Amino acid sequence: MPSITIPTQFGPLTLWEEDGAIVRLDWDGNGTDETELLVEAARQLRAYDAGELKAFDLPLQVAGSDFQRAVCEQMSAIPFGETVTYGDIAKALGAPAQAIGSACGGNPIPVIIPCHRVMGAKGLTGFSGKGGVETKVALLRHEGAGGFLI
């Protein structure tokens, strides 16, 4: 599967493409492919990293259940610099907040699908990307998001 790695302030991020869509983002990969989509995705990720991009415009394909895709769709709708709670997404989807937390943790395309913008009812929670909660805080600070507890 074609992939490309981009150095960012959040660590090296590797984007993976399959069938004309971005399907995964990992930390610490070593992708070196240059498909047209991966070059564009890398350009957008660099612009985000530089503070010049607030919304990604890329074809994404989320693997998993319909529920996983629905949660990722809800996360994708969270505006740059804002946060919502697991409970907010749970209410929108009519599902338990704990199930939302599990689906957020299973997000295959973090950063682009901004699971870092989802908080617990009492504030800051974990993050499944490399660096854990410290990376989540760095992403939120990068976006100027307020309203979370450290």
From TrEMBL:
| Subcellular locations according to the entry | Cytoplasm
PROSITE patterns in the record: MGMT
Pfam family example for this protein? DNA_binding_1
- Entry EC number(s): 2.1.1.63
Q: Which GO terms describe its molecular function?
A: methylated-DNA-[protein]-cysteine S-methyltransferase activity
**Domain of life where this protein originates:** Bacteria
Q: Which residues form the Methylated-DNA-[protein]-cysteine S-methyltransferase DNA binding domain?
A: 66-145
| Top-level class of the enzyme under EC nomenclature | transferase
* Described purpose of this protein according to its UniProt entry: Involved in the cellular defense against the biological effects of O6-methylguanine (O6-MeG) and O4-methylthymine (O4-MeT) in DNA. Repairs the methylated nucleobase in DNA by stoichiometrically transferring the methyl group to a cysteine residue in the enzyme. This is a suicide reaction: the enzyme is irreversibly inactivated.
Protein name (database record): Methylated-DNA--protein-cysteine methyltransferase
UniProt lineage? Bacteria, Pseudomonadati, Pseudomonadota, Alphaproteobacteria, Rhodobacterales
